[in-house]
Amino acid sequence: MQAITLSAVLLVLTSLAGCAVEPWVKPYERAKLADPIMSFSRNPVADSYLHHVYQAREAARGAEGGQGGGCGCN
Amino acid sequence: MDVIEIKRTNRLLLIGSVAVALPVLAAQLPEERADAMYHLYDGGGVTVSGPSILVRKQFGESLSASANYYVDAISSASIDVVTTASPYTENRTEISASVDYLYGNSQMNLGYTNSEESDYSADTVHFSIGQDLFGDLTNVTLGYSRGSDEVRRNGDSDFNDEVTRNSFSLALNQVVTANTLFALSWETIADEGFLNNPYRSVRYLDASSLTGYSFESEVYPRTRTSNALSARLRYHLPYRAAISGEYRYFSDTWGISAHNTELGYTHPLGDNWTFDLSYRYYTQNAADFYSDLFPRVQSQNYLARDKELSSYSSHSLGFGMSYKLQRESWKLLDSASLNLAYNYLYFNYRDFRDISQSEAVGQEPLYELSANVMRLYLSVYY
Q: For A6-10, B65-69, B182-186, B361-365, which range has the lowest pLDDT when averaged over its residues?
């Protein structure tokens, strides 16, 4: 049992170490990701306004992405 | 929490189709820009419009500050107002300021927001700290905000109450492949204080009334805690366009649970135009203490007839277009863009009746609402 636990811990540590040393998407492969059309919030003013509209019309709130910090829409 | 912005210089490199080492999630400050927006919401007898001005400026290599001025000019003859009160006009003014600080692979954000209406004041402070991990493929951000609100009632100087709000958030941004970004976000919000609307009423069956019903003030619990978990995905197609997907699950201690999902498509055309299309679906069930028609006066401790606490679903169809301007001769500006975005919203209430229609009590048609939401704005980058 102890051997299995030790192996599991070693496996987790090895995979974490792998992540830290070797990013699987190389810096030179990130051109498409850096395109502005890939931004989750290209237009912060317009996006936060639409979140404000949804918050005012819906009971759900939170985890919208973008700026946090209250909407003052109660 | 801050969404990591892409540096403008990176965008220019990309337009030139030069594939170089571009940071994607690497800790960096949001780009310097200013936005001037006019917004308009029109639906269900409510019109809300006004300006929003955002300015962001960088100081040195590691500090960036932003300020926002926002106004809602409200003219309301909503279904609640028409059936239980009188139409009104109101202004809400919001100012906010925030500072971003970069330290190695960490980013910190400190922000303050103040919102003022004739009968409501809200102050919120916000702090978040984020860290890049695993060769900048992962970003983890923790956030906390605290709000202190003061609730008043126009025409009743004796009424004064307050709300405090604590919010904790955790966000994970992840580069999945060379084409795919993923974000997971969780937020819990705890409110305490006067959480209902001091003007709103609920209705109950009353045989002594001509209409068959009467109204009494709504009463909400003084505490509410909610949890929301969202997942977002963005994928760069083989040609220059992106698709996005989002899902959020929400639940709170008032018995409400909600789901929303959104699909989006972004398509640039030539060097100057960008078009956006989106569809969002939202659905929720009612709060435990909601009813369209209570059986008698004071029939339970908590009473709500706010349509936002009822059971309903909504659809939102969005369209956006952006035109980018860039001139070699510009000295102070790098570029500018003119943007128009429009959403059509439709709400379909499942247990909120339109009592402006004269039908037998409890048999009135279910209420539905559609709204047009528009944003017109100019962005400049410097």
A: A6-10
- Give the integer Cα–Cα distance in Å for B301 and B216: 13
Q: Which of B236, B256, B271, B314 to mutate to test the interface with A (most CBs of A within 10 A)?
A: B236
Q: Could you please report the per-residue DSSP string of A40-64?
A: S-S-HHHHHHHHHHHHHH-S--S--
Among A26, A32, A73, pick the best mutation site for testing chain B contact (most B Cβ within 10 A).
Answer: A32
**Nearest partner of A42 among B341, B19, B131, judged by Cα:** B341
The answer to whether the beta carbons of residues A58 and A64 sit under 8 Å apart is no
pLDDT tens string B93-132: 999 999 999 999 999 999 999 999 999 999 999 999 999 9
Of B94, B250, B266, the CB nearest to A72: B94
User: What is d(CA B352, CA B366) in angstroms, rounded to the nearest whole number?
Assistant: 6
Of A30, A70, A72, the CB nearest to B24: A30
Phi and psi angles of residue A9, each rounded to the nearest 5 degrees, phi first: -60, -45
| CA–CA separation, A31 and B177 (whole Å) | 12
d(CA A63, CA B251): 12
Q: Which of B6, B163, B229 sits opposite A39 (nearest CB)?
A: B6
With beta carbons less than 8 A apart as the criterion, state whether B56 and B31 touch. yes
**What ipTM, to 2 d.p.?**
0.89
The DSSP secondary structure of A6-45, one letter per residue, reads HHHHHHHHHHHHHHHH--SS-GGG-TTTTSGGG-S-S-HH
Q: Which residues in A lie closer than 8 A to residue B339 (C-beta atoms)? A: 43, 46
CB contacts < 8 Å between A and B, how many? 227
List pLDDT tens digits, range A3-37. 666 566 656 555 554 445 477 888 888 889 989 99
Using alpha carbons only, give the angle B37, B42, B47 rounded to the nearest 5 degrees: 85
Please state the pTM of the whole predicted model.
0.87
CB-count exposure of residue B184 (10 Å: 0-12, 13-18, 19+): middle
Please indicate if any CB of chain A lies within 8 Å of the CB of B278.
no
Residue of B nearest to A29 (CA): B178
Cα–Cα distance between B226 and A55 in angstroms, integer?
Answer: 13
Each residue of B142-175: pLDDT tens digit? 999 999 999 999 989 999 999 999 999 999 999 9
Task: Give pLDDT tens digits for A28-69.
Answer: 888 899 899 999 988 889 999 999 999 999 999 999 875 443
CB atoms near residue B217 (< 10 Å): 12
* Interchain pair A46, B37: CB under 8 A: yes
